[in-house]
């Protein structure tokens, strides 16, 4: 192993520019979901990204497979009965406002040691880094005693239908990793439950705020009566807002729902203000009596937490009161040892007391791979050898990666501790030197896992 290990860095240097060029080609494909387009499940551009990735894999010497319906593809190398997996996704979130980007989002630009572009960090860059790390092993003549399969998903940013189809039809690896998070690795991911609480709107109130289950809303706009009274109440409460001639915009702080405690929920604050000035409705009473600004919803679930993954997180991501219904759209991150059914039954019963019905939208089960598992031990050893970092520990997360799609998988890189996360943001980028280090880690990891 020592001779092979010493050759990793020189070999990776030889193909580093090839990795950059391949990534530039993938970034140029704006693989944002578009289900309106015919013949492909998630749109022409996502299919183009999948086909281009498989073309790159074939050029590198991998055996490839394209799902006839276009949900997924994979590339494989090696021999043997056991299968090791690497799970990456090729779809990306929209670029958002072009004005906020310093470079064109779908034109990869290398500047000051960084590559900018949508998908560089999430997840085209890390996926290709692991792929080219494996190519370096191939160039060094490494014999793969197990098969190594790169599985490419196309629907990670929405509903994971790609992974659902793969798991229904294909061989499941015995273990592996998803290069779509942080180092050193994520051994526990909370269960992700998204749901609506809704009931008949028996008031004259009309509200609509929030954009996503999994985002703490940073604004909530009110256009009804008693706006002056509302601003007085908001002042008394100490809540920030902006007032115009015909509306009041309550201000919060947007963060991902997995860290809801770091944000300020503008919807909750608006409902608290409306209650102060005498308004009442099913959702107003529910939030005021049970939630307020508590991101852990202790009045509903008690102190729900565990040592492995921490506290339950509760986020009201959207609200709608129209002529027929009032609806809260809620994101809950469930500790890995908690019983999802108990959570559902508790919330269903309490919501009924307010005239609200529980309607499940989506659920992703939690993952928990004990720290003494051979996968954790192997990946941590590799990370420590390459980085010299013996301080960082395996972490738990409220986020959701493909690691939950299969048993004995964890999220592994490619963002290092203290490194800036730019996924889903304007000016998304990777630091090329850090990504090269990640390639070195992935080369060693795949070498060991395939022995």
From TrEMBL:
Q: Which SUPFAM superfamilies match?
A: Bacterial exopeptidase dimerisation domain, Zn-dependent exopeptidases
- Any signal peptide, and if so, which residues? none
Record keywords: Dipeptidase, Hydrolase, Metal-binding, Metalloprotease, Protease, Zinc
Reported cofactor(s): Zn(2+)
The cross-references to InterPro entries, in alphabetical order and at most eight, read: ArgE/DapE_CS, Bact_exopeptidase_dim_dom, M20A_pepV-rel, Peptidase_M20, Peptidase_M20A
Q: Which Gene3D superfamilies match?
A: 3.30.70.360, Zn peptidases
Entries under Pfam families matching the protein: Peptidase_M20
As for family, the record states: Belongs to the peptidase M20A family.
Q: Which NCBIfam families match?
A: dipeptidaselike (TIGR01887), PRK07205.1 (NF005542)
- The protein here is known as M20 family metallopeptidase
């Amino acid at each position: 192993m020592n001779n092979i290990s010493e050759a990793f860095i020189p070999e990776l240097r030889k193909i580093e520019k090839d990795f950059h060029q391949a990534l530039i080609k993938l970034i140029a494909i704006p693989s944002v979901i578009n289900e309106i387009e015919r013949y492909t499940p998630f749109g022409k551009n996502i299919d183009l990204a999948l086909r281009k990735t498989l073309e790159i894999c074939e050029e590198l010497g991998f055996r490839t497979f394209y799902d006839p319906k276009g949900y997924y593809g994979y590339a494989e190398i090696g021999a043997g009965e056991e299968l090791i997996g690497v799970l990456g996704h090729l779809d990306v979130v929209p670029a958002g406002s072009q004005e906020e980007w310093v470079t064109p989002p779908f034109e990869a630009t290398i500047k000051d040691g960084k590559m900018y572009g949508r998908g560089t960090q999430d997840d085209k860059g890390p996926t290709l880094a692991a792929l080219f790390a494996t190519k370096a092993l191939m160039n060094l003549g490494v014999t793969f005693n197990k098969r190594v399969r790169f599985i490419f998903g196309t629907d990670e940013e929405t509903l994971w239908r790609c992974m659902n189809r793969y798991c229904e039809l294909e061989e499941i690896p015995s273990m592996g990793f998803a290069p779509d998070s942080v180092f050193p690795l994520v051994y526990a991911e909370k269960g992700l439950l998204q749901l609506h609480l809704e009931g008949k709107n028996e008031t004259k109130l009309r509200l609509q705020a929030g954009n996503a289950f999994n985002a703490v809303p940073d604004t909530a706009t009110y256009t009804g009566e008693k706006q002056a009274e509302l601003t007085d109440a908001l002042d008394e409460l100490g809540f920030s807002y902006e007032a115009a001639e015909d509306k009041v915009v309550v201000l919060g702080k947007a963060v991902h729902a997995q860290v809801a405690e770091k944000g300020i929920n503008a919807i909750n604050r608006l409902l608290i203000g409306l209650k102060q000035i005498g308004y009442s409705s099913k959702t107003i009473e529910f939030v005021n009596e049970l939630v307020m600004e508590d991101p852990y919803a202790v009045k509903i679930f008690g102190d729900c937490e565990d040592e492995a993954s921490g506290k339950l997180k509760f986020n009201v991501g959207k609200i709608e009161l129209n002529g027929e219904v009032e609806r809260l759209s809620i994101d809950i991150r469930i500790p890995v040892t908690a019983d999802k059914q108990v959570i559902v039954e508790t919330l269903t019963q309490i919501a009924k007391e307010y005239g609200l019905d529980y309607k499940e939208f989506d659920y992703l089960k939690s993952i928990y791979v004990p720290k003494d598992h051979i996968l954790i031990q192997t990946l941590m050893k590799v990370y420590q050898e390459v980085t010299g970092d013996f301080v960082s520990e395996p972490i738990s997360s409220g986020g959701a990666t493909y690691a939950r799609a299969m048993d004995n998988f964890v999220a592994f890189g490619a963002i290092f501790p203290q490194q800036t996360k730019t996924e889903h943001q304007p000016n998304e980028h990777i630091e090329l030197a850090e990504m090269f280090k990640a390639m070195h880690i992935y080369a060693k990891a795949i070498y060991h896992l395939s022995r």
